[in-house]
């Protein structure tokens, strides 16, 4: 494992930005660590802003918030892990959304624990999940 590093799922990034009780709860798993997010989390956060018609000030706040994280990019090895995860979940009758599959694949490939409030990540081979659920 990559000691001192974690990947924050999109829901955790959102909780932190909103300052919710869940954000405060998950913050303890991030303090003192290098916190990464997957490229798709950046897209999901911008999608939420677009869908909810955020104004310029709130979008600037989002941009500043995202600077708190190291953005992990795509690579071909992660794409292969993504394909394995999607197929394994399909065969098990537990399909996974494409954003969650990319997040899981990135965490598995980098061997970095995933901090999430989403129970859909449980049972993925090679994925270490840190959660409060």
Characterization of this structure:
This protein has 133 residues and is α/β, with parallel strands linked by helices. It has a single domain (5-29, 36-130), classed as 5'-nuclease (Rossmann fold), CATH 3.40.50. The protein has six helices and five strands. The chain has helices at 10-18, 21-27, 39-51, 56-66, 76-91, 98-110; strands at 5-8, 34-38, 70-72, 114-115, 129-130. The chain has a five-stranded parallel beta sheet with strand order 3-2-1-4-5. The longest helix has 16 residues, at 76-91. It is globular.
Report mean pLDDT, rounded to a whole number: 96
Low-confidence stretches: none
- Please work out how many helical segments DSSP would assign: 6
What CATH first level would be assigned?
Alpha Beta
Distance between the termini: 22 Å
Q: What general form does the structure show? A: globular
The rounded Rg comes to 15 Å
Q: What proportion strand? A: 5-15%
Count every beta strand, where a strand is a DSSP E run of 2 or more residues: 5
User: What structural class results from the helix and strand content?
Assistant: alpha/beta
In short:
With 133 residues, this protein is an alpha/beta fold.
Topology (elements, then pairings):
Layout: E1 5-8, H1 10-18, H2 21-27, E2 34-38, H3 39-51, H4 56-66, E3 70-72, H5 76-91, H6 98-110, E4 114-115, E5 129-130
Parallel strand pairs: 1-2, 1-4, 2-3, 4-5
Helix pairs in contact: 1-2, 3-4, 5-6
